[in-house]
Amino acid sequence: MNRQELLDALDAKYAAIGQNPDTHLSGLLHAKPMTYWDFIQVDALLGLQTQRTQLPDEMVFIMYHQINELLFKMILWEIEQIARATDISAEKFSMHLDRVSRYFDMLSNSFDIMGEGMELEQYMKFRDTLTPASGFQSAQYRKIEFASTELINLIDNRFRATIDRNTPFEHAYEHLYWQAAGKDYKTGEKSTLLTNFDNKYMEEFISFMKEYNTANLWTIFKKLPQEKQKDPKLVAAMRHYDWTVNVSWVMHHLNAAKKYLGDAAATGGSDWQKYMHPKYQRRIFFPELWSQDELDNWGIDNLEDYSRG
Fold first, then answer.
1. What is the pTM of this model?
2. What angle in degrees, to the nearest 10, is found between the helix axes of 3-16 and 21-30?
């Protein structure tokens, strides 16, 4: 555009919202030029790391998890683009899924920062100051799960036969697979880890579950026309995302935890190996896109060869 075209476009833009373009141009005249540090909010970002101990490697632990949360936010942003789209094309669906998978690939490959980037002696000291907190309590990760698949696929496998679409969300919430990390189903008693998590996020989670009940990735995929559902690139993207989140990322996380914890309990007190390992919880977002053999060996065989085709 030349200058006159730009001015005409600005006139049209502000006229459409009942604004005087001259006022906005005057404001632009007096505005400070943008800088990288202002745009990224670098000072605020670098001021968010607060140690509870004087052990240097605690800073690695804090920053690593903050990076994870930023990536989780990017993932939720991409999923929302699919959920909010009308008449989404297979190409656009695949594009956003590929972005999400790349973010999870980054998360998977980043566990060397945890596995090799902290001294065991330091970690075993500062981890005690985290109790009863745990990475389990990442609300954004739970939202990623809710936004990815139908709720039934996140229910503890022992209770799926008793839950359907008519089940109240509050009841379904109490039987999500990750409740098993801190709940005695015989007594109903919950650990401090889980109680704190519920108190902070349960109402927000139930609201989010309702919002994505028919707007999750799996439901949206199944509503597509048959020709779109059979698009090879889209199917490959769906499978790759499912495997990356529920097998690859989880196993990298599990192996990093084993390096430091061995058979010790997690900071939140959960039976973390059974909670995390995909062969126990069988987290599968898109079950109908996998063969029976693949489903039977979920988390047992290396599914990497299956992830793209």
1. 0.89
2. 120
